[in-house]
Amino acid sequence: MIPFGARLRTAMDTRGPLCVGIDPHPSLLTDWGLDDTVAGLERFTRTTVEALADRVAVLKPQSAFFERFGSRGVAVLETAVAEARQAGALVLMDAKRGDIGSTMAAYAATYLDPGSPLFSDAVTVSPYLGFGSLRPALDLAARSGSGVFVLALTSNPEGAEVQRATAADGRALAQLMLDRMAAENAGAEPMGSVGAVVGATLGDAGVDLAINGPLLAPGIGAQGATPADLPAVFGAAVGQVVPSVSRGVLRHGPDPAALRASAERFAEEIRAAVSAADGVSGQKGERGGA
């Protein structure tokens, strides 16, 4: 299996640097003219997958919106994961799991074991029981060619009270986690498979984001960030960013053509912002070398 980091780099280069969330909020189901039922969930999810899975780099279903319907909702999620991957999209399961020991190992097996019905290309996890608690997920991901996205600096304001706190060695806790991710990715080419979640709404991350891995950037669209904000937040690491848009694309449903057009607009805007930032960085490098 080709490692997730390499597969993600290829997908971003060929399909565009965009992750679209599949977040079946009750309000979105209503906006689509659907009932807040399993049938509505299935129609919403199938329409989104059929419209986007053959063209966007990453689809990111939010597990909670499926789990709230119990086993029937999880069955919809299983089908969506399989059909999205079959169409060529990488699936990032947004589950934000975090625990210790055998429980963490069970979470890892759920999303990162190729034999699981919910096997995904990557999963989001929380490190705030200690980065070492993620070892079962990190190890299984490495064996299965999957990826792990670790919460670092999230877009919700409440996150700062934990993530910006000072660790025993004086580093911000988020920086400590990022440094651990960098160690996991050391030597990987073109980039590692352990990513960080860093909100696009932060303005200036204020941390070293050079982890040699992908940086998932939620917050674009409905939360207020735009593609033009990415260079200020991510600086020299902007080329590793996987911007994530959910409601900004999904609000254009249920028309598949409108969903596709919205995703393509975001991808082009992101490409332009990253290209402009790379150009400025290159010019600075040339002046510095002179």
Automatic annotation (TrEMBL):
Pathway: Pyrimidine metabolism; UMP biosynthesis via de novo pathway; UMP from orotate: step 2/2. The active site is at K96. One of its GO terms (biological process) is 'de novo' pyrimidine nucleobase biosynthetic process. The keyword Lyase applies. InterPro entries: Aldolase_TIM, OMPdecase_AS, OMPdecase_type-2, OMPdeCOase_dom, RibuloseP-bd_barrel. Belongs to the OMP decarboxylase family. Type 2 subfamily. This is Orotidine 5'-phosphate decarboxylase.
